[in-house]
Amino acid sequence: MSPNLIQMTKEVVSTKKAPKAVGPYSQAIKANGFLFCSGQIPMVPETGEVLTGSITEQTHQVLSNLKAVIEEAGSSLDNVVKVTVFLRDMNDFAEMNTEYAKWFSGIPPARAAVQVARLPKDVAIEAEAIVLL
Length: 133
Known about the structure:
Number of domains: 1
Helix content: 10-25%
Strand content: 25-35%
Number of strands: 6
CATH superfamily: RutC-like
CATH architecture: 2-Layer Sandwich
Structural class: alpha+beta
CATH class: Alpha Beta
C-alpha cells in the first residue's frame, strides 16, 4: 500500500444504555479516530418509551443518550467536536440551549441548530454528534 493512502477502518458502536437502532443504521460508527453518532431522540432506553414533557426534559434525555453512546466508544462529551440539533419549533431554542450548555464544559463543540418539519415519533428534538476518539 502506498504510504499516502490511509486505510479506512470502520467499527459499529452499540450500547443498551441508549435506545437501540430501529432501522438500517447504527447508534454510532468509529472511523479513523472519529465517532459519528446517529441522531438521538428523547427515548428512554430502559423502557423504549418516548419522553414527553418540556423541551428541557427532552433535551436532557437526548444528551444523556448521546453521552451513553460516546462513552461506550471510549470517549467523552469533552471530545465532541460538532453537534447538530434538530428542533420541531425554533421557539424552543432558548430553553434547549440552557439545558444543552450544562452538558459541555471547557470548549463547547461547533453546533448547528435547525428547525425541521417533523422528527421521528413526533418528538420535539433530535441531536447527532461527531466526536474525537
